[in-house]
Amino acid sequence: MDRLQELEGKVRETVVILQETRAEKAALEARVQELESRMESLADTVRREQQEKEHLKTSLQRLEAEREEVRSRVDALVEEVARAEASLRERR
């Protein structure tokens, strides 16, 4: 009889442990799902930021090219003004 009660006690303990384990498993699965969703969200954010970075890089390159073009034009105009001034000095 004692052996039977001892076995019943062990079965009850096992059932309790099994229930706790199932509850922990469900909680862990929910946490994993939450973390996977967060990771996907962060990956989307990184992708968007990389696209924005590429867009900004392209815009910066375009602006630098435009700046160089303007600088070349200004330098050409300054040279032309200098030649005109030199020509006026020679005429005086």
Please describe the topology of this protein:
Layout: H1 2-91
What are the defining features of this structure?
92 residues; mainly alpha; 98% helix; 0% strand; rod-shaped
DSSP helix count? Answer: 1
Radius of gyration: 39 Å
Taking the sheet with the most strands, its summary is:
none
End-to-end Cα distance: 133 Å
Q: Determine the fraction of residues in helical runs and give it as a percent range.
A: over 70%
Uncertain stretches: none
The overall pLDDT, averaged over residues, is 96
Quaternary: single chain
Instruction: Supply the helix-strand structural class.
Output: mainly alpha
Shape: rod-shaped
Tell me the fraction of residues in β-strands, as a range.
Answer: under 5%
Listing every helix as H and every strand as E from the N terminus to the C terminus, the arrangement reads H
Counting DSSP E segments of at least 2 residues, the number of strands comes to 0
Describe it.
By secondary structure, this protein is mainly α. Helices cover 98% and strands 0% of the residues. The protein has one helix and no strands. The model has no long low-confidence stretch (mean pLDDT 96).
Offer a quick outline of the entry.
This protein has 92 residues and is mainly α.
